[in-house]
Each structure stands twice: as C-alpha cells, then as structure tokens.
Amino acid sequence: MKIKVKLVRGLAGKRKDQIQAVKSLGLKKVNDERILEKNPMVLGNIRKAHHLIQVEEVE
To answer: Is the pTM here over 0.85, yes or no?
Structure first.
C-alpha cells in the first residue's frame, strides 16, 4: 500500500521535531508531494506533523 503526502503549510516557527519529521518524509517546500510506502516509520512522521501535511491513499 502506498500513500501520497503533500506539504500544505510552511515550516517557519514550527518545533524542531516537526520540521525533522516533514523533512524525513522528503518534503522541503509547500506543495511538495511524495508517494511513499505505508510503514511504521512513515506513519509515525505523519502523526507527528499531521497538521502540516495532507495524506491520501494511492493504489
């Protein structure tokens, strides 16, 4: 199963752990999108920065 993550809010003024979570997902700028495998590492990073990103399931 794959998921598409998109950065929808900027990182300025956010906590360091949230910024690291977004960067580990491969997102750098607003509107960046990545398709990633659904695994515990990815899901943990999504949970940490859920208010900054948009998530969709892809087949």
So the answer is: yes
